[in-house]
Amino acid sequence: MTTFKVKEVSKYISNILRRDSFLSNISVEGEVSNFKKSGGHSYFSIKDDEAVLKCVVFKTVPIASSLNLTDGQKVVVTGTIMTYEKGSYYQILCKNVERVGLGNLYEQFLALKEKLSKEGLFNVEFKKPIPKFPKNIGVITAKNGAAIRDILNTLRRRYRIANIYFYPAKVQGIGASDEIAEGVKYLDSLDFIDTIIVGRGGGSFEDLNAFNDENLIRTIFNCKKPIISAVGHEIDTMLTDFVADKRAATPTAGAELSSVSMDEIREFLSQAEKKLNKNILEEISADKIQLEHLKKELEYYNPANRITTLKENLENLKKSLDEKIIAVFNYNKQLLDFKRQSLEIINPNSVLQRGYSIIYNENDEIVNDIKAVNVGDSLKLKVSNGEIISDVKEIVDGN
Question: Which of 14, 252, 271, 339 has its CA 20 to 30 A from that of 321?
């Protein structure tokens, strides 16, 4: 038996497909999935209930520049079945793509959207405002997905004062919509939660379909807390986007919508300070006007006795205030003089002026004990106006 290299087998299969006239010009109908463009080329898959076929439209094909498909659309592609040798899979090189209708999944999406819209679940009057300065933000998304990292990084960068409460949930596949709905109910039950972000990164229409679940949509509608839907990218609009109080194109954008930046906080405080100052000035101005009004009323009614009494009271208060000011001044002056005298008493120069002296030995150390001096030592006596150098002739014990 001959052993072949992988490349040789791949090349052999490629040649078989290339020589097959049936596969060289074939039309296939299916539902679009994972449509994307890169470098002018278009890549997508078409599928039915049992199989998936990869498709590519190169930029040299006339329809390439205008081709823009939506996941879930039904199309008929015409082209040649070829192998992609590096990946060892086959695909159809399309020369034409015709839309023939919507796929079943997308039709279900549109039908549910119309139903819920008629019930009013998407109406603007039900939208709740997003708190500008939330203290506690709830996040529902996959535990290990990029969405939670993007949200946390964004909030740490621009709004570090918020507490984040993360509820991990599946975001695609069986049971995903139920887990997300349970997360919404749980976070809604916590009184301290201010805002809830529900989302995930982009994906195919099928990947994101958990966010089109009717039970989830109704759960979000009945939520008492404001919700931001941050699902996929700009081209992916799910039903959660319609029912949520705010829609963000990405998880990062959702985090930005849920908070303000530190620059915005500083600007808010600056504006608040200006507004406060303005209000104070307006209050003062209003008080001045009121005072002038009262003054005119007093002048009009001429309450002479009351004015006289008030003047006397004012004079008494002024006199009392003057006396207290003088008393405080005198007290502080006396206290200052006392402290000055106290400082003068302990001032070394003052002590020296009273006839005392300070004795230093040859090492300029103060001598305060006869035991530290020997006969013959040279001592320095510091007096108020100079120094005296003397030699010790005799030591007399004072005890």
Answer: 339
